[in-house]
Amino acid sequence: MPSPSPTRWPGGALDRRGDERVTDDLIERERAASGTRVLLIRGDAAPVDGGRLSLIGATEVEETYEWAFLGRSMDGRGLLLAVLEESDEPALPAGVEWGRLRSVGGDLPAEEAEILATAVALAGWLRDAPFCPACGTRTELRHAGWSRHCPRCGREHFPRTDPAVIVLLSSATDPDRVLLGANAAWGGDRYSCFAGFAEAGESLEDAVAREIFEEAGVRVRDVEYRGSQVWPYPRSLMLGFRARVVDDAEVRADGEEIVEVRWFDREQIGTALRGEDGVQLPGSSSIARRLIDDWYGGVG
pLDDT truncated to tens, each residue of the chain (300 aa)? Predict the structure, then answer.
């Protein structure tokens, strides 16, 4: 693949144009259109330049693992996803680097962070689910990369999204204290909100109560929905909540997934956000960080 000439997303929200996906030759038409731009995805990373996504013209892309249609900008230009093999190392222009969603998502403009999250999620499905889970036959891509058809059993398959809850807990008696946990997977040195997947047949509110009790040993009340975020690791939709602990004295870490739980007051959170005391908080691209930032800033 030659060194591409980068461009920037022209701004404005992405119009996904789901109605266009039924057009059989949409990918081919967009690849031939002069105004079409392409976002390369390798693993969970895309080319980034100066805090912006770096796009290229469709004619500059040679070998890819798979193609998909992401949508259109407000001026009508198409945006395609080109999924690369993780072993691919295409030449990038000077100043352009591969940026992982976890690392750069919080620094991108909001519309570009949405594009990158969508592209990483869709690329993961295109790369990891080529076979029919019912009969094992290799499927055929349809709807411009947004569905798969099994030619043997006729089933249609779509990108999967798994709902997960993530919760910021406040004290039963002091609204200026929040409870955070240190996950064993992080080495026990980063504190974040409590999270877990909703189970089959379980409401989000029930998932909040169960996960919090399992991980931190407490009962909760005043559960309040605060927003959501696509988190394609591997295919989550994180649904953010705030809740209040019923009894602060009940707090305990489960000792397996959560190795420590700790109360933080507003001053301690501010110190941690400024990086002054060695306590690590969630990365800026995560909804966990947004929940903490909003609480610290008095939002809601």
Answer: 445 566 666 656 789 999 999 999 999 999 999 999 999 999 999 999 999 999 999 989 877 889 999 999 888 999 999 999 988 888 888 999 999 999 999 999 988 999 999 999 999 999 999 999 999 999 999 999 999 999 999 999 999 999 999 999 999 999 999 999 999 987 777 999 999 999 999 999 999 999 999 999 999 999 999 999 999 998 999 999 999 999 999 999 999 999 999 999 999 999 999 999 889 999 988 999 999 999 999 997
Question: 């397996």: which residue's tokens?
Answer: 256
Nearest to 227 by CA among 208, 212, 241: 241
Position 243: which residue type?
A: A
Q: Which helix (H) or strand (E) holds 15?
A: none
17 burial type by CB count under 10 A (0-12 exposed, 13-18 middle, 19+ buried): middle
**CA distance linking residue 300 with residue 76, whole number of Å:** 37
Fold of the 162-296 domain: Nucleoside Triphosphate Pyrophosphohydrolase (3.90.79)
Residue ranges of the chain that CATH labels 3.90.79.10? 162-296
- Cα separations (Å) of 80 from 35, 55, 142? 11, 10, 15
Q: Which residues contact 33 (CB under 8 A, 6 or more apart)?
A: 58, 78
